[in-house]
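User: Show me a protein chain along with its predicted structure.
Assistant: Here is one chain, sequence first, then structure tokens.
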Amino acid sequence: MTTQSSPIITEMKVIPVAGHDSMLLNIGGAHNAWFTRNIVVLTDNAGNTGVGEAPGGEVIYQTLLAAIPQVVGQEVARLNRVVQQVHKGNQAADFVKGLLERMHVDGTVLANVGEDGVRLYIDKSTMGMLIGHRGETLDAMQYLTSLAVNRNRKQDGYTRISIDTEGYREKREETLARLAKRIANQVKATGRPRTLEPMNPYERRVLHATLQNNPYVATRSEGEEPNRRVVIFPKGSTEDEE
């Protein structure tokens, strides 16, 4: 089937169910007599309706709900990538949930699957211990989760993983963006480069992205981890020629 003739998904429903069945009625593999499942119902603009099932559980249910905007409006022939992303979203959420259990932390993990990757949000009453100093704990959890989800990246492709709690990432990005603009103005005024304190790769990317279109300054990273730093320098200077 070519994408030109492929029907377009117009509706997606996710229905959590629980019940009792026998092996004769089991379409999802062996499980206990009592089971939970998430039933997915898709409808397209050609009038077709398809029904499928996914494992039960709140994490998978919320992941499927979050995927609805990515599914509706897509051609049936192009849904494979979305299905892979949803699967990786489930993997990532389950992995983080396991990390929390090993840390003896009680929290809920929600997954939002999009074209740019999987965003995980941890809902917990006391978030400080999950964030750590300047997000170090959160970064470590994100790194480990990315390794787990992308073990088969050569076959399945790479999926970007982002983990946040209490809006920390957004707040930190805003702080870094303000810092980058303030230092850029100082560099423009003095004509001298400025080297910032060591930052992790995520924080350095925010600085580079903030100033990438600045007409007066440029950025680069130098040094070795964990002491790698961002240098902001005037465009047209000898620094810029290196």
